[in-house]
Design a protein that fits this description.
By secondary structure, the chain is α+β, with helices and mostly antiparallel strands. It contains five helices and ten strands; from the N terminus they run βββββααααβββββα. It has a five-stranded antiparallel beta sheet with strand order 9-8-7-6-10, with helices on one face. A three-stranded antiparallel beta sheet has the order 2-3-4, with no helix packed on it. The longest helix has 17 residues. The chain starts with a strand and ends with a helix.
């Protein structure tokens, strides 16, 4: 492990001592009345971490927050039940904790979440990557890789999924309206 030791510039280190507990002390030469005197001094040490790296405490906190998200209900910041079941193939939270390591469960959830967030669904607002036109997905055919869109000017057309990107907005009303229309048939 690396440490940062703060030693004032005016001191000259002569000898470094490490005790059985890992504490470091130095014998420092100081001039007093024109004579050199060795003065043993203890300096504080701060654990050093590379910029951008997590401390053990950060990693523990992240793992604990993920564990809480598995067990907490959605209202308390937990993963919604439907999402959890889709991600972990219907397993219970207890089964995930028993069968997977933190790293495996977290990686699986992050991969599932990334795929879900990039996947276009009915009601998603989308933007055409070239024209920057904005519309709402009203029908999605993942096998053919097409999305039917109602553009902001009211026109409609089919576009390839890879020509679109989600804006982050979603309109549940669109899916609800289409579902209600099907029920009335």
């Amino acid at each position: 492990m690396k440490y940062i030791i703060d030693i004032p510039d005016e001191y000259q280190r002569q000898n470094v001592y490490v005790d059985g507990h890992g504490n470091i002390s130095f014998a420092i030469n100081m001039q007093c009345n024109g004579r050199n005197h060795a003065v043993p001094t203890n300096f504080g040490m701060t654990p050093y971490t590379e910029p951008g790296t997590k401390t053990i405490e950060d990693a523990q906190e992240e793992a604990w927050e993920f564990a809480q998200s598995i067990f907490y209900p959605e209202e308390m910041g937990g993963i919604p039940d439907e999402n959890f079941k889709k991600c972990f193939y219907g397993k219970s939270a207890e089964a995930v904790l028993k069968d997977m390591s933190y790293q495996e469960a977290k990686a699986k959830y992050e991969a599932w979440k990334t795929e879900k967030e990039s996947k276009i669904e009915v009601g998603d607002e989308v933007m055409h990557k070239i024209t920057k036109s904005i519309g709402i997905a009203t029908w999605v055919d993942p096998e053919a890789n097409y999305v039917h869109i109602v553009w902001s000017d009211g026109s409609t057309e089919n576009r390839k999924m890879d020509s679109l990107e989600k804006t982050g907005r979603h309109f549940n009303q669109v899916a609800d309206m289409l579902k209600e229309m099907k029920e009335e048939e």
